[in-house]
Amino acid sequence: MRGVEASQNKFQEDGFLVLEGFLSAEECVALQQRIGQIVAEMDVPPHCRAEFPPRILNKAEEQQKTQDNTEYFLSSGDKIRFFFEKGVFDEKGNFLVPPEKSINKIDHALHAHDPVFKGATHSSKVQAVARSLGFHMPVVVQSMYIFKQPRIGGKVPAHQDATFLYTEPLGRLLGLWIALEDTTVENGCLWFIPGSHTSGVSRRMVRTPAGSMTGISIRGSDPAWDNSLYVPTEVGRGSLILIHGEVVHKSEQNLSDRSRHVYTFHLMEASGTVWSPENWLQPTAELPFPPLYT
Ligand SMILES: O=C(O)CCC(=O)C(=O)O
Ligand SMILES: [Fe+2]
């Protein structure tokens, strides 16, 4: 096995690092079973069911729908919320596919509200990884369970996580992405541009002032990343991929028959770091960012 120091060097060089066998198969299954229970108990919010409206909406209704969707997203930072794939409801709002096959992701605070995911996030193994990377005061800023459903699991366009979760200085954000199933090119594994984490961030997603129509806006744009530079990163079930906050990564649509479940969460080194007040995600009175080392 690679030594800790060699791994750290590789992470600093590439902006990502694969740690195989981080979770056992049993630990992966436990998270999958728990998410199954959460889905079985899910209440689908009425506006989410309106994927295919039964009639053409007028402009004001369209605007209201966009506003409802944005509001559902913007207020999800401290909650467990459900986001669906396109085309999973019929015109009456009934599921066209089984509910557990309809969800794109569940986020952004599983780590805070669900005991099983809280345990997985704050485990001694995760704490040891953070310590080995030199984190003094890591806090958990968000978590997501991503399903990448067979056939319909949508792609995640190329991005840097700091576009959405910006800090000053940069370099204080780390994603921990855990494959709960084998991930391959066919079922939508991650693709990275090695070494792309050193050129800064030129696109930001920011929260617009309260009362404005959409609630979020994009400032700046990404450079044209060369498609030939992406490296597919296939990993086995239980692998952990460390993702530097500025490394460029993406995943493609899942066209295979196999799902690609992952649990992913983000840490920030809180010591000496300013969490941008413009980020869409903000700590709240109900949920300040929890320290990892507890
Ligand atoms: O799982 C994916 O497809 C994308 C996840 C991602 O971008 C992240 O965890 O930062
Ligand atoms: Fe990402």
TrEMBL record:
It comes from Equus przewalskii. 2-oxoglutarate(2OG)-dependent dioxygenase that catalyzes the conversion of 2-oxoglutarate to succinate and CO(2) in an iron-dependent manner. However, does not couple 2OG turnover to the hydroxylation of acyl-coenzyme A derivatives, implying that it is not directly involved in phytanoyl coenzyme-A metabolism. Does not show detectable activity towards fatty acid CoA thioesters. Belongs to the PhyH family. PHYHD1 subfamily. Keywords: Iron, Metal-binding. Coiled coil: none annotated. Its cofactor is Fe cation. This is Phytanoyl-CoA dioxygenase domain-containing protein 1. Pfam families: PhyH.
